[in-house]
TrEMBL record:
Keywords for this protein: Aminotransferase, DNA-binding, Pyridoxal phosphate, Transcription, Transcription regulation, Transferase
CDD domains on file: AAT_like, WHTH_GntR
Name of the protein described by the UniProt record: PLP-dependent aminotransferase family protein
Family that this chain belongs to: In the C-terminal section; belongs to the class-I pyridoxal-phosphate-dependent aminotransferase family.
Length: 474
């Protein structure tokens, strides 16, 4: 096949996503010799037009093919066929990487981070590969607009594969971590003095962002599935708020998950009141894909801004998150917000992520993180038993201990005196009807032995608090 001729693959009907079948066709043509090493593939738009399919489908197919090691994308030059090499082999395992305790002998159960994975070699390999391919130049330049196209293409493939959300790369914004994504979306949607609705307890980072932007948070009553629809309906009518910030999957701090039917109720209310939804789905990757509720963004794509943080499931140090915008949403205010809140996202973490998505490292790391999260959750269940509320997914990096307000303060104080730090309830509470209790972050300790030690301290603090409650001791 001539290197610059148009490749028009045969894609027979079969089960599975069309972009997977297109990648399969590429793999078959490589094996058959129809596509030689170095063959330049058609641009996304040209191939989409030739096959009568969407550009987004071609983009996902190319990203999938790159993940399999079938092609190499060069910014500004195009995509070229190449055979898989040992350089892009998937790393089979990753070890949990012990790190020193951040504050002397104190054990931190405050910071909601995934268990640390040993990534130094994978990082070095990714940077070496990027340099060899001539892809490191963006890392030393300003990145304009919504981010690097290859990074957003990798993000689109990752969201589809790990979060169950199909989005065109053109609808993604590359952000400097999840906190930047929250501040960016709230600043784009609201003006100082506006009211933003959220769960009665919410992510501390959202509280900080709202306070910094001069916004007022109004908490909505929760039950075991999160937001109560009737309460939301009433408060929207009372406040005439236009924005809802929600963490529907493994809610932070309570680890509750909103079921599919509840999500549909929330969407109906949002449409009735013309409410824009900011869906922070940082923890969706921990849920089992087999019974994970659909993202709200897939139920109401016309009014939902979807936030996915790579930090929570792979590596916090990459400082990478994506905002998926409604397709018809004007971009100007978002783009102005990018410049105002950081000018542009750092490129190196995004480039490393792109490399890891292409060669399978990202999947291997995410699988290792989730396996460790499952082990740590089982450890918490064994030690804390019925004292903990069961999280709304098969894995969770944090758990919730429902307690009375008095018990909450006692447990936090007793644990602190025994060398274990917990987050005060006021850090997440938004309204007076917020469920009292304590969030426990299972990923922060350096290893399982340290976590086990901390959980035993916590169990003792819970027992002592119950004794004090029974005996009327203040």
């Amino acid at each position: 096949m001539d290197r610059d001729s148009m490749w028009r693959p045969d894609i027979p009907p079969a089960p599975g996503p069309l972009y997977h079948r297109l990648a399969d066709a590429m793999e078959r043509d490589i094996a058959a010799g129809t596509l030689d090493n170095g063959t330049r593939l058609p641009p996304h738009r040209d191939l989409a037009h030739a096959l009568g399919i969407s550009i987004g489908t071609v983009t996902k197919a190319y990203a999938e093919a790159e993940r399999r090691g079938l092609l190499q994308a060069h910014v500004g030059r195009g995509s070229f066929i190449r055979a898989p090499t040992p350089d892009v082999a998937i790393l089979p395992t990753f070890d949990i990487a012990p790190t020193p305790a951040p504050r002397g002998t104190m054990i931190d159960l405050r910071c909601n981070t995934p268990p640390a994975v040993a990534l130094s070699q994978a990082l070095e390999r990714a940077v070496t590969q990027l340099a060899a391919a001539g892809h490191l130049e963006p890392a030393v330049q300003y990145i304009q607009g919504s981010g690097l196209r290859p990074v957003r293409e990798a993000g689109s493939a990752w969201l589809a594969r790990r979060y169950g959300l199909e989005r065109d790369p053109g609808d993604l914004i590359q952000c400097n971590g999840g906190q930047h994504a929250i501040a960016l979306t709230l600043s784009a949607l609201c003006r100082p003095g506006d009211t933003v609705l959220c769960e009665s307890s919410t992510f501390y980072g959202a509280k900080i962002a709202a306070e910094h932007l001069g916004l007022s948070l109004r908490g909505v009553t929760m039950d075991h599935e999160g937001l109560v629809p009737a309460a939301l309906d009433r408060i929207v009518a009372e406040t005439r708020a236009r924005v809802l910030f929600t963490v529907p999957t493994l809610h932070n701090p309570t680890a509750r998950t909103m079921g599919a039917a509840r999500r549909e109720e929330i969407v109906r209310i949002a449409r009735r009141h013309d409410l824009t939804i900011v869906e922070d789905d940082a923890y969706s990757a921990y849920a089992d894909p087999g019974d994970r509720p659909p993202p709200i963004a897939s139920l109401a794509p016309e009014r939902t801004l979807y936030l996915a943080s790579i930090s929570k499931g792979i590596c916090p140090g990459l400082r990478l998150a994506f905002v998926a915008l409604p397709p018809a949403m004007p971009r100007e205010r978002i783009l102005r917000g990018i410049r105002a809140l950081g000018y542009c996202p750092p490129a190196l973490g995004g480039l490393v992520f792109t490399r890891w998505v292409a060669d399978g490292t990202a999947d291997a790391v995410a699988d290792a993180v989730q396996a460790e999260a499952a082990t740590r959750l089982d450890l918490a269940r064994r030690i804390l038993g019925d004292a903990m509320e069961q999280p709304g997914a098969v894995r969770s990096p944090h758990i919730w201990l429902p307690l009375s307000p008095v018990q909450t303060q006692r447990v936090i104080g007793r644990a602190l005196r025994a060398g274990v730090e917990l987050t005060p309830q006021e850090a997440s509470s938004v309204s007076r009807d917020a469920d009292p209790g304590v969030r426990v972050c299972l990923g922060a300790p350096a290893d399982r032995a340290t976590l086990e030690q901390a959980l035993h301290v916590l169990r003792t603090a819970l027992h002592d608090s119950e004794v004090s409650q029974t005996e009327g001791i203040v």
